[in-house]
Amino acid sequence: MENQVQKKRIFSGIQPSGELTLGSYMGAIKNWVALQDEYECVYCIVDMHAITVRQNPADLRRRALEQLAQYIACGLDPQKCILFIQSHAPQHAELSWILGCYTQFGELSRMTQFKQKSQQHADNITAGLFTYPVLMAADILLYQADLVPVGEDQRQHVELTRDIAQRFNGVYGETFVLPEAFIPKMGARVMSLGNPENKMSKSDPEGCVFIMDQPEVIQRKFKRAVTDSEMAVKFDKENKPGVSNLLTIYCAATGKTLEEAEAEFAGQGYGVFKPAVGEAVIELMRPIREEAQRLMGDKAYLESVYRDGAQRAQRMAQKTLSKVQRKVGFVAR
Ligand code: ATP
Ligand code: LTN
Questions:
Q1: Which residue's alpha carbon is nearest to atom 5 within ligand 1?
Q2: Catalytic residue (choose from 8, 80, 202, 223)
Q3: Contacts of 278 (CB under 8 A, 6+ apart)
Q4: Model-wide pTM > 0.70
Q5: What whole-number distance in Å separates Cα of residue 248 and Cα of residue 168?
């Protein structure tokens, strides 16, 4: 055999806790697709993370399958990357327990997402919500991932993952690859159309564009997008957060630079600009929506993808888990 260089690994996942959004597409999935040719990629539907807040079981099951269809429709190719459902690989829960014993209470208490979610779900702050980042660390470290393509909001969790890995390696010797967050230049933090001070998020349907939204719905949301009382289409995050967000979306959708976009709309008001951004997003999403709808009609195919994905994922994950179990002193099974 010739000397083949081992491809670098990628791991990422999204919770099936709601519909995929334009934010998750621009912040994460777009990069997943771009990286699949050059790297060995593992992409997950993290249903175990989703139950850290209360879910309706029938909806959760349906959304996990829809999310797989949408992953493929976005351009992820099951021949090139591993696509699977987190709960189908028991190694995630097993490693998560072990890593939890190498994570400090204080570290988890500082996680911004925990602070936000425990405010949103004040009546149900579970241990699972608190230890969420440990399960995420297990996801990433099981596959020895070098890069983790996510939006800006997940940087803190990837950094914690690195700290846990480093601590474990320090005690037991080289065990885990130290992962790095891979965050896009344009679209790392898409803001809500209704409230551009907040991140676009599936928990706020009006300010949020969903991948599966019909064109008329997308156009309506963009026409209503909050801007300011000036006229100029200029990027200025501080003073013009709404317009700056729309410009970012426009550039991420069309591949144009901010300068090109500003020049294109120079002298034109928001009445021209907002529908143009809507149109760009509609055209970006159209083929994805249509293909996802078609795939949803082919349950047998989707099942074959996630079954095959789970087998391949388990094989990779088990290698790491066995090594870790041996290192911490468990008796071999
Ligand atoms: P929730 O409303 O439950 O917080 P969410 O809409 O923020 O969910 P996630 O499922 O948490 O979406 O995120 C999936 C991936 O997409 C993550 O990598 C995340 O960083 C990225 N992402 C989510 N929202 C945005 C956004 N508005 N801009 C850029 N990236 C985003
Ligand atoms: N916390 C992430 C989802 C997630 C993830 C992962 C992302 C769970 N495990 C591993 C990257 C790698 C979020 O979207 N909120």
A1: 201
A2: 202
A3: 218, 219, 221, 222, 223
A4: yes
A5: 39
